[in-house]
Specification:
This protein has 144 residues and is mainly alpha-helical. It has six helices and no strands. Helix 2 runs antiparallel to helix 3, helix 4 runs antiparallel to helix 5 and helix 5 runs antiparallel to helix 6. It is flat. The termini are far apart.
């Protein structure tokens, strides 16, 4: 296997290793009595997703370098940095404005950066923020 083929598999190895570590570490979390889902549930779901994606990336690592693959330009890098800044600012903004408006605005901003159409984006951002809020506060009893 060539060096570039190995390099294309690095993201899969990283996702696999990170998923394995998260799954192992979540096993150290305390368990709740009575069959209720404990604090390890969501980290284990994330770990399972990472392991699955890592395996898929190892199986089919993506396109080889060639003329049809364009490197990310400044606009792509700017969207990446803006998305990271939005995620980092989320806890601070949530404390100021509350969960639902900030989650809806975050989903709206990321959708705009990805080029989504306005009307479906506004509706889906509002619905998703409301559903997540209700799921956590009503069903799981977790205050947001």
């Amino acid at each position: 296997m060539t060096r570039s083929a190995w390099l294309r598999r690095v993201p899969g190895l990283v996702a696999l290793a990170l998923g394995g570590w998260i799954g192992w570490y979540a096993g150290t979390f305390p368990e709740l009595e009575g069959g209720h889902p404990g604090p390890a549930l969501f980290p284990r779901l994330v770990a399972a997703g990472l392991v699955l994606c890592g395996l898929l990336l190892l199986w089919k690592p993506g396109p080889a370098e060639g003329p049809d693959v364009e490197p990310a330009g400044w606009a792509g890098r700017g969207r990446f940095v803006a998305g990271l800044l939005l995620v980092v600012a989320f806890p601070w903004l949530q404390g100021l404005l509350g969960f639902v408006p900030v989650a809806a605005l975050l989903a709206l901003a990321i959708g705009l950066m990805l080029g989504a159409r306005w009307l479906p984006l506004v509706v889906s951002s509002a619905v998703a923020a409301g559903v997540v809020y209700l799921l956590f506060t009503r069903l799981l009893g977790v205050p947001l």
